[in-house]
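Person: I have long wanted to understand how a fold can be written as tokens. Underneath my words sits a plain record pairing an amino acid chain with its backbone structure tokens. Those tokens are not coordinates but codes from a learned vocabulary of shapes. I should like you to check that the lines agree and flag anything odd. The protein I mean follows directly.
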Amino acid sequence: MSNFLNSLVCPGNCPFDLELLPKPAYIVGGAVRDGLLGRKREYLDLDFVLPGDAVGVARNIAKHYQAGFVLLDAEREIARVVFPNATADFARQEGDTLEVDLHRRDFTINAIAYDPYRQKIIDPLKGEEDIKAGILRMVSPANLQDDPLRLLRGYRQASQLGFSIEAKTQAAICSLASHVTSLAAERVRVEISYMLTKPEGTPWLKKAWEDNLLSPFFKSATPERVAKLMEVDRAASLLAQSWMELGKKFPEYIRDTVKTTWLGIAKLAMLASPDPEVAEIELQNLTYSRAEIKAVTTALKSLKTLNSGEMSLREQFFFFQTAGDVFPTTTILFMADNNRVEAIAPLIARYLDPDDLVSHSTQLVSGKDIILYLNIPSSPLVGELLTEIKVAQAEGKVSTPHEAIEFARQLIEDWN
């Protein structure tokens, strides 16, 4: 284990020369924990504790390497240096000694320090034993109360590491749950997002709601809907087994700049209100992006349409127009609610067929063509005609530009 810890600070891995650090200096937190677990990181995230002038040291290192510098907390002297493939945070030691600093941390597995010069682990709270046992144990209830985000972070780390939460720690978290309302919404959102990414996080999302850590933010959620979080993962797995191409969509990010997956959107939809307008407000309050909010509300609207029963070709056309890229998420929600593959299978077949004109409409004529050949002014009417032409094409009524123009001409006559 120590060999891997050494690799964290060897010249080939550390983003800067350790000679730029004062002595003593210690690596603490997640990097040490993951080193002891043998979890390798593609992107290094290092935390250093220094006896003093942490901001000055960080500033000098940033200047030396022309790296990014961020002052995180002037009062507590915490600064960050951002390298292309690593981030290094530098903090002034809290208290007179390193041991005092470690005793102020959240969980014992995160209260371990590593001295890169002496190649020595400093572990006054026996966090290494808890790592070996797979247990998340608090340092103290007071530490959790000092920053209530640590309550949610415990569930998130348990899910990521596959750990259990020690009984007294679990009881302390539940007793302090009301303090989460003091947290900034974006901090809560980040912890939720970690648990949305993989199936391992789903039981902990459910438990976080049951233990009143999430219920203040998702006030419309019910025990029945929260219980379906587990069904969401099962539904996604069943759908992926039957339709591999559909399953490939579930782990994809909804946008390159938004690190929430389509499967994660399905889980958010289960936590949020089934009423799209209420869900929008809940997610806005948690500072979710417009793209994430639109994905959730679109999925909820589309699910309502699916649950309404069999649809005509025209109704299917407008359903796909509304669902768009959110269709894979909608199938997950439908399966989690109903578990009826036969009801959704025809729509999945259409979605996966790029030539299907119901789910993937094409444009036979343009708005300019309509204006030119029918001698009408530019107006919302043109858009309505283009939509009706697409519906008629999906229904097999038109297939050429000429037929499309004549169909539009007849519509105008009928409407007048």
Observations:
- The mean pLDDT is 92.
- Residues 2-132 form a domain with the Beta Polymerase; domain 2 fold (CATH 3.30.460.10).
- The longest helix spans residues 223-242.
